[in-house]
Amino acid sequence: MPLRAVLFDFGGTLLDMATDDEAHRRAFAWTAEAWRLPVDGDALWRRHMEYMEPYWHGQPGAWRPLRDLTRESFERLLRAYAREPTEEAWDRFWRAYLDAHRDVMRPYPDAHECLDRIAALGLHVGVLSDVDIDFLDFALGVVGLRDRFDSITTSEEAGVGKPNPQAFRLALQKAGAPASETAYVGDSAKRDVEGARAVGMRTLHVVRVGEPSPAAERVARDLREVAAILEEWAR
Known about the structure:
By secondary structure, the chain is of the alpha/beta class. The chain has ten helices and six strands. It has helices spanning 17-34, 41-56, 66-80, 87-104, 111-119, 133-142, 155-158, 165-175, 189-198, 223-233; strands at 5-8, 124-129, 151-154, 182-186, 202-206, 218-220. Helix 1 crosses helix 2 and helix 2 runs antiparallel to helix 3 (66-80). The radius of gyration is 19 Å and the shape is elongated.
């Protein structure tokens, strides 16, 4: 059955997560310097990442905005070094956090080519990402992909994270296509492949390093392979 729609994950699929990690590292290095904390910036960043670790793996239940969790981590770190986490302090940090992402966050080099090739197929192209509404809009603008999508869906909007079927059903509703005629492209075996399969979507697992999910219909090692498979499915 030919495709009518394709939905993409964002982080780790289109967005190079190494650049996202670098943005976080820079933001917390700035924090250590701005507040003259008696700790190395990298150590502060690692403590933040440890705090966020459970949430990076998804929130299939009720979604807690990542900006709120980031604020909790930031304020917790300031208190640990006897600094007052005021509203002004948070505003300063959040500006620096966004600036760091603006400076270094990048898509994978083959992301634009992949989306160009898919656009030529005449399919609905959407994104469904485990992220906050405002941050995804910001990030898509930074990496030059905002205008590549016909629909944008976030877990914050759905109220739950992947692999909860509710998030996928909302994205399908926006796409206006049945699950059987929609492909989902993602890098996570659990959140992306299992979540999309659970609602009847075709699944394409992007695995740049490591083992592919046996549950995925097809596997690609990069986004050029993704484009080739979608071109085949769209015939």
